[in-house]
Amino acid sequence: MPVPWFLLSLALGRNPVVLSLERVVGPQDTARCSPGLSCHLWDGDVLCLPGSLASAPGPVLVPTRLQTELVLRCHEETDCDLCVRVAVHLAVHGYRGDPDKEEKFGRAADPELEEPRNVSLQAHVVLSFQAYPTAHCVLLEVQVPAALVQPGQSVGSVVFDCFEAALGAEVQIWSYTQPRYQKELNLTQQLPDCGGLEVQDNIQSCWALPWLNVSADGEDVRLVLDVSEEQRFGLSLYWNQAQGPIKPWWHSNLTGPQTITLNHTDLVPCLCIQVWPLEPDSVRTSICPFKEDPRAHRNLWRAARLQLLPPRGWQLDAPCSLPAEATLCWQALDGGPCLPLVPPLPRENVTVNKVLEFPLLKGHPNVCVQVSTWEKLQLQECLWADSLGPLKDDMLLVETRGPQDNGSLCALEPSGCTPLLSRASTRAARLGEQLLQDVQSGQCLQLWDNDLGALWACPMDKYIHQRWVLVWLACLLLAAVLFLLLLLKMNHVKGWLRLLKEDIRAGAAARSRAALLLYSADDASFERLVGALASALCQLPLRVAVDLWSRRDLSAQGALAWFHAQRRQTLQEGGVVVLLFSPGAVALCREWLQDATSAPRAHGPHDAFAASLSCVLPDFLQGRAPGRYVGAYFDKLLPADAVPALFRSVPVFSLPSQLPDFLGTLQGPAAPRPRRLAERAEQVSRALQPALDSCFRPPAAPGTGRGMGPEAGDRT
Asked: Where is region (Disordered) located (predicted)?
């Protein structure tokens, strides 16, 4: 259903907000003063050198405020340029009339030698105008009559017409006197482009701008550029970030008219559109129509990612600025809510794409980061889970220190911070004395420390073991008695062993290892081959995740978010990520390795392999891949030496010739004996054979491959 506000009809250069600009005729610059003042504009440019500060010899004129106004300087009726009019407000500063300062400087010692009080003042006011790549300075001579000279009082203003500037430029204006008696005034202003003023009939550079219509096309967005068939123009989509430079996203040189469709999942609040004719010195006009779109704000939070930067740094990655706060919290093993560590640790405003430091001494897998707005919690990540392992059953103790070295310890629990030596019915209160001894004996890990307190993480495993040791002894004794009874009935031993074997198999299936299968979707036949391999692996005690079976989640979350979630879950459960190399996958890897600083080219919305390279490659480059990743390729599709050398730090298997070794690596310590492993490899090989045969058939006729959509532009 179309969104009503989104039906914008924007003609770049014909914006509905109309500003009527005054016209200034003639090429000559002029200056005029407020009543009572006299002023003169010096001919020619002057040097833009403020000089050093000087002491005022008495009352002096100084600029106090700058004002600007946009006007049109017209050479002919339809040949005008944008011009900036500057008004400088002046005031008298000095000590005349102050008896204390007169005595200090010796002015009241001899009244006959004292200068007359009612004298006029004169000042040379400099206006400096900079608009990249040019700079221009003018000198204004201002005379103030004696009647207006009152220290600390405003005397009027002088107006300069005018500084010419380009549309859309950023200009900087300074004002000071010669000599300079105070810090110079400065003003920075962003001039509008053709889309911000109704000047298309007066400024010739705006005539050639293409018309742009932004409208809703169901859930997606349609950009329609209404220009002549011969006109060539540039179109750029970029992220206008508040911190840092503009980040290009998509760019193309086109010939009109054109219609371009944007997926609704690509919308973010800072996504802007820039368009310009492909002519020398042409004007570029930009609009950012998605700032208030609720879908764009939801997409922004979906795209935001928290990243751990060793040793104690972290960063929030997002295409746009996010008004949010970050706090640290403690995630208990029982899966309850993450308990904020505020206080004692403070909240911190988040700056996107900027490295922030944890205020901790050491990392811990249970310490998580929460990013929230004033409305709700938006992100929560336990960033140390990948490097330090899964969550631990530790108790977090908060030490509060008061004056005279008085301190107290409490345990952070969902019900609050429980004092260790209290009579509460919580686990921390029951084990309060033991936990206090653990802190004193150094068995707890200190996470944070300052003059006001400290944080301690104390292991609870040993207390759980002590509680269950008698239960385990009783179970073992019962098992021994049952075993003796079974031995007395030898006729039932074989049946018992058969049942035991089936139980072991069922238990192994329940504890099957997780495997995440990543591949490049080269063509339909290769996707069928990957599907056959995944289905065959599922028949073993393996839990296989592959994007072929998760299309809906991919469309909802995006390829990168889906891969990040699957990879984290797989590695936390002790699983393995399988990189299935093909000609397309090898080409993508080499593209990343050859120029790792440039963004990758565009891929399909379900291409998890292309999206995952940004996370996979750092693991290999930093030596974290062994034990987490396994490589494989098919014999007839790829030669053995085609796999990049970087990925050979982990086992790489040729299929189906090395299927037994491949399956044994996937199953890990739970792998069966070699004979049983060979039988399973034979089963997988038979399941793969039909898909392998179809994959090696002669290629289809030209023209049957997949094409590129309008969105397959040159993303930069």
From this structure: 688-716
Please state, in angstroms and rounded to a whole number, the distance separating the CA atoms of residues 703 and 99: 96
Report which DSSP code applies to 645: G
Beta bridge partners of 8: 214
211 vs 529: CA distance, rounded Å:
48
Give the long-range contacts of residues 648-652, CB within 8 A, separation 24 or more. 649/620, 649/623, 649/625, 650/625, 650/626, 652/581
- C-alpha dihedral (543, 547, 549, 553), degrees to nearest 10: 110
**Sheet with 247-255, side-by-side order of all strands:** 247-255, 232-239, 271-277, 285-287
CB 695 within 8 A of CB 229: no
Give the Cα-Cα-Cα angle 465, 467, 471 (nearest 5 degrees): 95
Rg, Å, the chain Cα set: 37
Q: Which residues partner with 141 through β-bridges?
A: 40, 124
Residue with the two structure tokens 């992100």? 379
Both tokens of residue 246?
């503009």
CB 586 within 8 A of CB 652: no
Contact in structure between 357 and 313 (CB atoms under 8 Å)? yes
Distance CA 67, CA 88 (A): 7
Among candidates 188, 267, 256, 193, which has minimal Cα distance to 226? 256
What pLDDT was estimated at residue 6? Answer: 28
Q: Under a CB-based contact definition with an 8 Å cutoff, are residues 327 and 370 in contact?
A: yes
Instruction: Record the tokens describing residue 420, joined without a space.
Output: 């260790």
Say if residues 316 and 305 touch (Cβ distance below 8 Å).
yes
Which of 287, 219, 271, 250 is closest to 709 using CA atoms? 250
State the Cα–Cα distance between residues 203 and 305, nearest whole angstrom: 45
Retrieve residue 259's tokens: 């219609």
Question: With contact defined as beta carbons under 8 Å apart, do 534 and 548 qualify?
Answer: yes
The mean pLDDT values, 10 residues at a time, for the chain of 716 residues are 30 39 83 90 83 86 91 81 91 64 42 53 91 85 88 88 83 91 88 65 64 72 77 85 71 82 86 83 77 88 84 83 85 84 77 81 84 83 78 87 75 85 78 86 87 86 66 80 73 54 47 83 84 85 84 80 86 88 86 63 58 82 88 86 87 88 82 80 85 69 38 35
List C-alpha distances in Å: 543 to 149, 206, 234, 401. Answer: 89, 61, 49, 50
- Beta carbons of 615 and 668 less than 8 angstroms apart: no
Alpha carbon distance 293, 309 (integer Å): 32
What's 432's DSSP letter?
Answer: H
Using a cut of 0.70, tell me whether the model's pTM lies above it.
Answer: no
Q: What is the DSSP string of 260-277?
A: EEE-GGG--TTEEEEEEE
Residue 116 confidence (pLDDT): 45
- Kindly report each contact of residues 616-622 with a partner whose C-beta sits within 8 Å and lies 24 or more positions away, as own/partner: 616/518, 616/577, 616/579, 617/589, 617/592, 617/593, 617/646, 620/646, 620/647, 620/649, 621/646
